[in-house]
Structures are given as structure tokens and as C-alpha cells.
Design goal:
This protein has a 7-stranded parallel sheet. A two-stranded parallel ribbon has the order 7-8. About 35% of the residues lie in helices and about 20% in strands. With about 230 residues, it is an alpha/beta fold. The protein has helices at about 15-30, 85-110, 130-145, 170-175, 180-185, 195-200, 215-220, 225-230; strands spanning about 5-10, 30-40, 50-55, 75, 115, 150-155, 160, 190, 210-215.
Length: about 230
């Protein structure tokens, strides 16, 4: 089990909404000792705990492999929409890219907790009618077969962004008014970015080797400290 005050995290996708949320939460958490972000472009954030590697080709990270050593958590927040993409293209940008990255990372840091951001409705059977859900399910299943110490997959639905963060999708300003109603009537679908970020960072403390964290789990676990999570099992 990871020791307290010893989380050393790699984050991908920190120039996206979820990745920025996880990054900022990591920088605030006392139990996170160091953070390495891997991006195609600078994240624009400076902090004593933060290092950054700019790398264009996530299908081949062999050139930066030496920089990945010594980390015990990865928050994989990199992803693309399936809108207007064929299944072959979406599969390449989701399954192939993620697994290529994870396999190399696993060879370097097999003791690592790997956290993957999937989505509500992901299809673990890989046989459903919804294309993106099948691909995400296939990705989750493949990740859980890798010999990481832990693989935790997160399936949020609607995520309320944090005001003032720079990587929030523009359409949220038109739909944020739905959040209070959605939280009341569909709590399993609606969470905040703060809640998702905190629970992801708590994942190294989870006792499970593999887990699927649904929306209702995110809401529940966000209000429990990591130590209480461990003691309650």
C-alpha cells in the first residue's frame, strides 16, 4: 500500500477540463509529493511540485520513458469525443493510444495505480449498440488485465466545472443551470469536478486491485477521507 504523503503522480490531458481539475487538486493536496504532466502543449501552470514534458506523439512514448520512472500513480485524463468519428478512428484514438501508453508505463512502474477516465454508460460487455461505449468498455477491460498494482476506472456523467478554470468547455455555460435539478433527481449522473478530482487522487488508497467507480460512487466517496475508506472495508 502507498505510504501517506508519498503520491507521485503522472497526469495526461491536463489541458482538458478533467485533467486541469485533477492537476489543480493534486497541487493542493499535501499527500501528493510530485506531479508530472505530459502534454502536447504547455499547461500554463507553474508550481514547485510540478514538472512538465511536452510530447507530440502519445502513440509512442519511448523517447520520454526515462522521465516516467519513480511515479506511483497515473491519472489518465486524455480523451476525445466520438462525435463525427468512425469506430475505427475512435478506437485508435481511445483504445490503441491508451493501451500503448499504459503498457510502457506498466513496464517502468508496475507498482503504480492507474486511473482511467471513462464515462457513464460504458459497456463492459463490448457488444452493445453504442459505439463509444463499446470502445471505452474494451479499453477498461484491457487496462484491468495489465499487471499494475491497481487499475481504477471512473465513469462520471455530467460534470459541473470549476468557475475560473481555463479549460472548461464553452457549452457548459449554457447547461450549468441544469446541475441542481440533475443532482436532485439523478444523483448517479451528476457530480462536480472537485468531487471527481478528489476521488481520483484517493484511488491509490483503495483496497481493491481493480474497480469501476460509477457516478454514485464518486458522490459518496468524495465526502470520505482516504483513511476512512480504508478502515470501512
Amino acid at each position: 500500500m502507498i505510504e501517506q504523503d508519498a503520491i507521485r503522480a503522472i497526469i495526461t490531458g491536463s489541458t482538458g477540463m478533467v485533467g486541469e481539475g485533477v492537476l489543480r487538486a493534486c497541487l493542493e493536496r499535501k499527500d501528493v509529493a510530485a506531479v508530472l504532466v505530459i502534454n502536447r502543449k504547455p499547461c500554463g501552470i507553474s508550481h514547485p511540485k510540478l514538472s512538465e514534458v511536452i510530447h507530440a506523439d502519445f502513440f509512442d512514448i519511448s523517447a520520454i520513458a526515462s522521465a516516467l520512472d519513480g511515479y506511483n500513480a497515473c491519472f489518465f485524463c486524455l480523451g476525445v469525443t466520438s462525435l463525427r468519428k468512425t469506430e475505427a478512428i475512435y478506437d485508435k484514438l481511445t483504445y490503441t493510444l491508451t493501451l500503448n501508453f499504459a503498457k510502457i508505463l506498466c513496464q517502468i512502474n508496475p507498482f503504480m495505480t492507474f486511473c482511467y477516465v471513462s464515462g457513464k454508460g460504458t459497456d463492459s460487455s463490448e457488444k452493445g449498440s453504442i459505439m463509444w461505449a463499446r470502445v471505452k468498455g474494451r479499453t477498461e477491460n484491457a487496462l484491468m488485465k495489465l499487471p499494475f498494482q491497481k487499475v481504477i476506472c471512473f465513469r462520471p456523467g455530467f460534470i459541473r466545472p470549476v468557475k475560473g478554470y481555463k479549460n472548461t468547455h464553452k457549452f457548459y455555460k449554457y447547461v450549468n443551470w441544469l446541475f441542481p435539478l440533475g443532482r436532485k433527481w439523478f444523483p448517479a449522473t451528476f457530480c462536480t469536478l472537485e468531487e471527481l478530482s478528489e476521488v481520483m487522487i484517493d484511488a491509490p488508497y483503495f483496497p481493491e486491485k481493480t474497480a469501476l467507480i460509477e457516478g454514485e460512487d464518486i458522490h459518496r466517496l468524495a465526502h470520505i477521507t482516504p483513511q476512512l475508506q480504508i478502515n470501512s472495508k
